[in-house]
Specification:
Blueprint lengths: L36 E7 L28 H12 L3 E6 L1 H4 L10 H16 L3 E6 L4 E2 L2 E2 L7 H15 L5 E4 L10 H17 L7 E4 L6 H4 L4 H4 L12 E6 L18 H14 L4 E5 L6 H16 L4 E10 L13 E3 L2 E3 L2 H7 L8
Parallel strand pairs: 1-2, 1-10, 2-3, 3-6, 6-7, 7-8, 8-9, 9-10
Antiparallel strand pairs: 4-5, 11-12
Bound molecules: 2-acetamido-2-deoxy-beta-D-glucopyranose (NAG) (2 copies).
The site of one 2-acetamido-2-deoxy-beta-D-glucopyranose has 4 residues, from loops.
């Protein structure tokens, strides 16, 4: 979900502009002022997953009325139609998809339930991120370093890639927020094994999100896992479609656990990241960011998002945390819209910062 806590130094970095390669299958051009993909998370299938990669399946809360849950499908339709959103990230626990059988087949019922959400997302015309919400772990142990083998994780991704190989707009979110990974070289080997498996399973062009350690912090990527993740390649040696996955919250300890925001994260995180991405001709997607429905978050989150728009050559877009099955009354980072009659009403923060604004760049 969202708990990262890092120590940061406030360093500004100067930018330089280098033309970035494009992903050929995307309709919208990326130019200064036009982010390719904007949207939110539709959470619920991940509920019960802890930062130790333990997932209590009794707490899974599908955001699907067909399964007795909230109307996540209606939420996505609203976000797409009324807010111009075109990407939804759909977190899910590994244990849920294989019904707790590590290395086993996708569970027909559970993977079928999750697929309902994926198909409803695709039906809005949006991109849809399959996000394995396990923090690099299965029941407390790290993949490829004492926990599940790379082969067991590859088995999961091979099956998912086979299932969605024919679907251009599915994005493979390899892993949510790895943290406290002792051996980054080994972690990068794990990520490489998954990328190779996804491509070999027939998903040759879809976007794959590359997760670093440090809770995929946008601040840490360029100096932490990023330099090693640069070496992750497609089987043809290219890096087409391989996009860095970054998260960033704006509260006092950057953990996303407080309703108030204190920073726009630009000088010490996103500006240096933009510079680093440009120098390596690569891109990132911010798959979690957000804040409370407060004036401080409106101020800082809007600034951060404006910075993404101004650097749309390296930032593909964002998915805010979070809509879906959260209770908007009690969850301080809720981006859940509420239905009034036939109309959906967004939170003030979503309206102010996250919806697509008319392009000013022509
Ligand atoms: C995009 O445009 C804004 C406003 O004109 C400018 O401040 C910013 O530096 C530009 N970004 C890039 C990467 O050129
Ligand atoms: C959010 O904050 C605004 C005031 O800034 C308030 O009017 C609104 O009711 C709050 N809640 C939601 C869900 O938007």
């Amino acid at each position: 979900m969202l708990f990262f806590s890092i120590s940061v130094s406030l360093l500004a970095a100067a930018g330089s502009v280098v033309a970035a390669p494009t992903l050929h299958h995307h309709a919208r051009d990326r130019e200064n002022g036009t982010l390719l993909l904007i949207g939110v998370n539709i959470a619920g299938f991940d509920f019960g997953c802890s930062i130790h990669g333990s997932c209590h399946l009794s707490q899974v809360t599908p955001p699907l009325t067909s399964l007795g849950g909230v109307d996540g499908v209606g939420q996505m339709r609203h976000f797409a139609k009324d807010d111009g959103m075109d990407i939804f990230r759909l977190p899910v626990g590994w244990q849920y998809l294989v019904n707790k059988k590590l290395g086993g087949d996708l569970d027909a019922e559970n993977a079928g339930n999750y697929d309902q959400l994926v198909q409803a997302c695709l039906a809005t015309g949006s991109h849809c991120v399959i996000d394995i919400h396990n923090y690099a772990r299965w029941n407390g142990k790290i993949i490829g370093q004492g926990g599940p083998s790379n082969a067991q994780f590859v088995s999961l991704w091979t099956q998912l890639a086979e299932k969605y190989a024919g679907t251009d707009k599915v994005i493979f979110g390899v892993m949510n927020e790895p943290h406290d990974v002792p051996n980054i070289d080994k972690w990068v080997e794990t990520v490489q094994a998954v990328v190779t498996a996804i491509r070999k399973a027939g998903a040759k062009t879809q976007m794959i999100l590359l997760p670093g350690d440090d809770w995929t912090s946008a601040e840490a990527m360029a100096r932490g896992s990023g330099p090693l993740l640069l070496e992750v390649k497609n089987p043809d040696g290219s890096t087409d479609g391989l996009v860095f996955d970054v998260h960033m919250y704006l509260d006092s300890d950057l953990s996303g656990t407080h309703p108030d925001c204190v920073t726009d994260n630009i000088d010490f995180a996103f500006q240096p990241l933009a510079t680093w991405l440009r120098s390596h001709k690569r891109q990132a997607l911010t798959s979690e960011t957000g804040g409370g429905n407060t004036s401080s978050c409106e101020k800082y989150l809007c600034r951060q998002i404006q910075f993404f728009h101004e650097n749309a050559d390296v930032f593909l877009g964002y998915t805010g945390w979070s809509a879906g099955a959260f209770n908007p009354e009690t969850y301080h980072l809720s981006e859940v819209p509420t239905k009034k009659g036939n109309k959906w009403e967004d939170t003030a923060l979503v309206k102010a910062c996250l919806v697509r604004k008319p392009s000013t760049s022509g």
